[in-house]
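Lab notebook, bench 4. Still working through the backlog of constructs that have no structural model yet. Next entry is a single chain of 212 residues. Request: give me the C-alpha cells for it.
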Amino acid sequence: MTGRIQIDLFSTLDGVQQAPGGPDEDTDGGFAFGGWQAPVMDEADGEQIMAGIRAMDALLLGRRTYDIFAGFWPRQLDGADSEIARKFDGIPKYVASRGTPALSWRDSHLIGGDLATEVAALRERHSDIHVIGSIDFARSLVAEGLFDQLNLWVYPIVLGAGKRLFPDDGLPTTLELLAPPTSSPKGTLFLRYGPGNGAPTAGDMSRADRGV
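Model written out:
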C-alpha cells in the first residue's frame, strides 16, 4: 500500500490561511480576523470538505494545529459537529514536532525524525492521510515535494496581513493542476494541485516559449 498525502487549506483571495475557524484560533502577529471563513462558507464547499473528512484514515498535523484540535474536537463528540469530531477522534493522529509535547488526545503519535522517512512510513501504514491547516508544516511538505494533493478552498475575501503557505520569502516552486477548478454559489474556488517540476523557469512572451 502506498498512501496519499493530502493538504487541506482554506485561503483568502490574497493567500491568507491563518485562523479560518475561530477568533481565538491563532492571534499571532495581532491577527484580528480569526473565524473569517464562516461568513463566506456555503453548502457546496462544506460538502467537499466533508467528503475529504469521511475518506481520510489518518491526520498529520503541525504542533500548533494539533493543540487547537485537541482542545476543541474531543469536546464536540455529541454536539452539532459530532460527525467531524467522531471521525477525528477515531483515527490516528500524527504530530510533527521537534520537541517532546504531551499528546493527550487518544491515538496520537509523535513524528520528529527525518521528514521524508516519516512520510514514507505513514504512506505504508495508511491510504488517505490529510494535513489540515498546519501552515508552517504544510510549507515544508510542499517545499520538499512530500505530498500528493494540495486542496485549496479560495474564498472571495481579502485580509491583507496573515500567515500564508507561500510567503514573500518562500521557496520558488511549480504546481500541477490535477482537476478542473470548481466554484460554489458564494464564489469559493476549489483548486487541486500536485507537485510540479521544481523551480519556475523564465520565458519570453514574444517567442514560442509562452507555453500557449
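Notes after review: The chain is about 25% helix and 20% strand. Residues 205 and 212 are 10 Å apart (CA to CA). Flag for follow-up if needed.
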